[in-house]
Specification:
By secondary structure, the chain is mainly alpha-helical. It is built from one helix and no strands.
Length: about 70
């Protein structure tokens, strides 16, 4: 009897979790705004922009760590 009760509780919890995930998906579909377009045609920069450029990095130190597993 104890095993049957334990199985029923686990099954109920898993079913509730599945319903919760479906509810979240439906909420996201119905209430979230879509992203802005990646480019706006009337707001594009000129074709020749930028004509030149550079990046300066002064006093930069880079290191990395290798963990011992």
């Amino acid at each position: 009897m104890s095993g049957l009760l334990q199985f029923t509780v686990r099954l109920t919890a898993e079913t509730e979790a599945m319903f919760t995930s479906v509810e979240r998906l439906l909420h996201y579909i119905d209430h979230l705004k879509s992203e802005a377009p990646s480019s706006v045609p009337d707001k594009k920069p000129a074709v020749d922009w930028p004509t030149e450029g550079s990046v300066s990095m002064l006093g930069v130190k880079v290191s990395y760590f290798i963990p011992n597993f």
